[in-house]
Amino acid sequence: QVQLVESGGGLVQPGDSLRLSCVASGRTFSSYKIAWFRQAPGKEREFVAATRRSGNPTYYADSVKGRFTISRENAKNTVYLQMNSLKPEDTAIYYCAADGSTSTIPARVPSLYDYWGQGTQVTVSS
What we know:
Layout: E1 4-7, E2 10-12, E3 18-24, E4 33-39, E5 46-51, E6 58-60, E7 68-73, E8 78-83, E9 92-99, E10 115-116, E11 120-124
Parallel strand pairs: 2-11
Antiparallel strand pairs: 1-3, 3-8, 4-5, 4-9, 5-6, 7-8, 9-10, 9-11
């Protein structure tokens, strides 16, 4: 079992950057695939980015490719989401999620993830 805690959200202007962190409890963090999802008001939760157990390769939604970077430090039980060139449409609650299944490639479907953090709010507005 793993518990996830996100941090780093906030209110920023278009074009700014933010780095989200997801810290996990437990000694088996490296056995989980980790993903970031987001959910805007009135919309479904959507996939943002994911990383394999080793940290490579990484996977991105088309809407964030080239602007966001996911990375992980297994020694620190932490996954990051570096978000650059933020846009108003990036406004959402961002969640990290862990998948302990044996599949190699991270899923893009929220229902396939076993554990979720409480979320951190990101607001992009001028």
